[in-house]
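Onboarding guide, step 5: your first structure request.
Type a short instruction followed by the sequence, for example:

Predict the 3D structure of this protein.
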Amino acid sequence: MSIDLEKVDQRHQSMEKTREKPWLAKFLAKLNDIGTVSDKEKIFFTQNLQVMIRSGLPLDRSLKTLAEQVSNKKFKKIIADLAASTEKGLAFTDSLSKYEQVFGHLFISMVQAGEISGKLEDVLKQIYLQIKKAHELKSRIIGAMIYPVIVITAMVLIGIGMMIFVVPKITAIFVEMKAELPLPTKVLIGISNFILNNGLLTGLAAILFIGLIIYTIKNEKTKYYYHYLFLKTPILGGIVKKINIAKFARTLSSLLKTDISLVKSFEITAQILGNSLYRRSLLSSLNELKEGVGLTQVLQKYPNLYPPVIIQMVAAGEETGRVDEILTDLADFHEDEIDQIMKTLPTVIEPVLLLLLGVGVGAMAVAIIMPMYSLTEHIS
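The system replies with structure tokens like these:
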């Protein structure tokens, strides 16, 4: 059953107006909502709401029941408000739009399509699968990055500790004996003295440097170049591509299964993708899609982002009218690949980290040992 596109556009415009708030209101709403509801809680909410509606329970009663079962006080309050709004006759989409920072634009758009098409139960099932798969993907990535982050942090802290507590005691001997110091030792002593004499300045500079990196990564004008660099980096580039293709395929498939138009699905999917190059590839294709250009032709314009196998499978899906199913298969395949990569990633990174650690320790050892030979020769 197809949906009325005019009604979708009207609802979308209504949601856009709801989101048009003064910057202070937006900021306060963001502080109030973001990070208060976990993915697991949204998975529980969506899955149980779908089951209750399938069982024939009215929407408002289902929401009231869920509000009683949720332990998160913030989420409980939100669900109770959704129940009260729907009980008064307000559309579920309009009720959810007040909490877009919690549920997200994708969630609300899919619910909107489900309400208009009369297939809310099926849409909720798709939303449940979407959130679940996205959460699993995020968990795999975070799990794989924990080990290298801990090791790198430990290396940095140990290095700082050596510079503050160990190096000054050892190098003090060389300074007192007025020995001729080699360049590596002079550099080591200089760094150690700078940290000791300018501890506050060093800490502030480190914080400012980290802050600058974070700012440039998040800034719309500069993060594009970071994302381009990530895609061109060996090993990392392949992982980034697989993650974005998996998100693209999973999200677009979920949206198409809820009868949302391809143009609108591209627009929503672009907001989900983390890499700026992938996001721009979708947004720049909207006009072509509106003119009737096929999905395959659009993706062919970006061979560096979408490999030939992806384009061929999408083309097969368009020929058979099974694009949503093909995209689901693509998402499953890439998510399985990412899972395998993330399981082996610590094993691949470990030798690199050990090599860096060895180089750092070796350089420090050489800087300390070299003057000892000079002193031994001088004494003898």
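Each response can be followed by summary notes, for example: Residues 5-127 form a domain with the Receptor-associated Protein fold (CATH 1.20.81.30).
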